[in-house]
Structure formats: C-alpha cells, structure tokens
Amino acid sequence: MGYTDLRDWIKQVEAMGELRRIHGADWKHEIGAVADISSHPILFDEINDYPAGYRILTNPSKSLPAWFLTVGMSTAARGKKLNQEWRERLRGLRPLPAKVVESGPVMENVLVGSDVDVLRFPAPLWHERDAGRYIGTADAVAMRDPEGGWVNLGNYRLQVHDAKTLGLYICYGKHGEGILEKYHSRGKACPVVVILGGDPALLLTSILHVPWGISEYDFAGGLKKAPLEVISGPITGLPIPAAAEIALEGEIPVDQHMMEGPFGEWTGYSEPRPASIIQVKAIYHRHEPILLGQLPRQLSRPTHAKLQGDFLFGGMIWDEIEKAGARDIQAVATYSRYLIAVSIKQRYAGQARQVGLLASQCHSGGFMGRYVVVVDEDVDPF
C-alpha cells in the first residue's frame, strides 16, 4: 500500500495502531522528553503558546510498520533476513525524476517580507542543554549544484536565531557542504530551500548517502515507485514538494556566520561553533501545518537506533562493498554508525581483511565509521 503525502502517511499509520496523539504539550519542557521515551510516532497538537492545528509529528521511524510503509515494503523478516531484503530493495531501485506541477497545497499560505517569522511554527527545545530551539531536525535542505545542475537534499540541523535567520550546521564531507563551497568560493550567496514537513520517504533519502549527482527527489521517487510532484520556488527556482507541509526559501550568504549549538546530536553533545546562516526570504505552508521533527537517534530509545542504523545504513554499506568488487557478503549491521559488523562466507586468505577495509572506506561506512568487525557466515551480526 502506498501513500500520497505526510497526511496520508499519518492516516495509514494511525489505522495500523502505531500513532499516538498528545494534546497540550509544552514545546520547551515536554515534547523532546516525550518523544525520547516513546517507541511510536507521535502527533502533538494544541501545543502551549500556539493555536490548535499547528502541529508537530515526531518519531517517524520508530515504528517498524510505519518504516515499511515509508519504503514500500511488506515483510515478516527481521534481523539478518530483513537486512538482506532491504539490500535487495536498494539494488533494484531506479530513481524516478520529480514531476514539475504548477502549484500545490504547500502554497495555501505565502508569507514574505515583514510576515516572515519561522517561530510561527512550534520549534521545540529538544534537550535542556541545547543552545536554543531547533526547527530543523527532520528537515531536508535543498541546494542546486552550480556545475552539474542537479539538486541535492540533506538532513542538516537548523537552529532558530531570530524570526528570519537560521543557523545551518553541515558536517564536513557532506554533499551540501561541497555545493555550498562552490557558491561561496565564487563570492555568491547559495540559494536554498528548506522542507520542514515533507514526505517521510524524502526525509529518509536525505539521511541516506545517495551518490553524488543523483537527486534525493529522484531517489525518493524510486523508493515510492512514483515521481514526487514539485513546484518551482518563486525566489530560488529550486523544486519544492507540492504537498509539503512547510517550506522556506532563502539564501546562505557569503562569510556570514553565527555561533551554533551546543545541540544533543546522536554522537552526544556537540560543542558550539561558528556556522553558516540561512536568511529566510519566504515561508510557504499548508493550512494547519505539521512540523516534522525527531531526536538524534543515539539519545533516543534503542529501538530507534537499531532501526535507523542496522537496516538502513547496513544495506547501503553492503551495496557499496559489492560494487567495489567484494563477494560473499551475508549481512551488514551498524551500531550508532561507529561500529560496522559484516558477516561473510570466507573463501580465501585475506578476504576478511579486504572486506573490512572496503567497509571502513566506502562512502556510507567512511562517514563516522570507527570500528569494523568481520565475522563468519554462521554469526548473525544483528
């Protein structure tokens, strides 16, 4: 069964009995804590200081049935078997280019000039030691490569500095960081679109390590087996999902930085540091918008860490190892991204070392990978 947009996804997840609804939570003291201890997707409404209908959906990946809906899978497999099926799903995936349409629900409300205020949405204080409110935790930040012309989307955190200014933190080596540097090295501001309530498949692909040159819009279309509908942003020309809940348009100026963080990232608390900013020029949102948000997985319950790490990135690493020439891989599991466990059917001397080196240096494994363990086929890494 497929779904059309985030609202349809919520409807179907609730029909499965997987969704929880909470009314009257406080954005500063409660939403982050409740999301942390829950193992289900939660829809918050009637949030303190905000009108009813301005909602937050958290934990979109904490429920395995909900995750299956997102990726278009239906299986009773678990552990090693599920890892194998996800890897086969990735191998058979063919990107589908996004379809440009004239308009969509995201344009029901258009705010520009003095009306721009990102805090019209209930951005939470996720952890008590955070530097401020973070509106972008389950977001997708879109930039167009000025040379290749393709559009990249990455899940980069966004701190609210004021009504029209967001702090943007991108890890070194990410595709967005490379594209941003191309603009700034030429003395140009980088056009940007931020999707704050998008299709769960788009969030997923913004987190995964999609190869350079392939747009996450197209990858998400392949995952759903249907092209995503997008409109051209009036200011930047960048594609905006037509059915997104909330989208921001703006630019990342050259040589303008503000202190960003600390923030409770999945690795623990990150230190404050100078980071680029986004100057927001326009806000688009649906009536009764839904802000999509999530806690970084290591600080959440183990169910969330296992789902995000073991199945998603393990499958990506497996695929990349095989593309590099290795064979006889039986399963790949990751734990908090630091530890990669690979099960192989060993056939010759040195094979384990070869596979271990490939796992540590491939695109998905090289980012934050610290340790690699290679085990025999009779050992289940899950």
Overall description:
The chain has 382 residues and is of the alpha+beta class. It has 10 helices and 22 strands. The strands form 5 sheets. Strands 5, 6, 7, 8, 9, 10, 11, 14, 15 and 18 form a 10-stranded antiparallel beta sheet that branches. The longest helix is centred in the C-terminal third of the chain and has 22 residues. The two termini are 28 Å apart.
Write the layout of secondary structure elements.
Blueprint: H1 6-15, E1 20-23, H2 31-37, E2 42-45, E3 55-58, H3 64-71, H4 79-91, E4 99-100, E5 109-112, E6 134-136, E7 140-144, E8 151-154, E9 157-162, E10 165-169, H5 175-185, E11 190-195, H6 200-207, H7 216-224, E12 229-232, E13 239-241, E14 246-252, E15 257-260, E16 263-265, E17 268-270, E18 273-285, E19 290-293, H8 302-323, E20 329-335, E21 339-344, H9 351-361, H10 363-366, E22 371-376
Helix pairs in contact: 4-8, 6-7
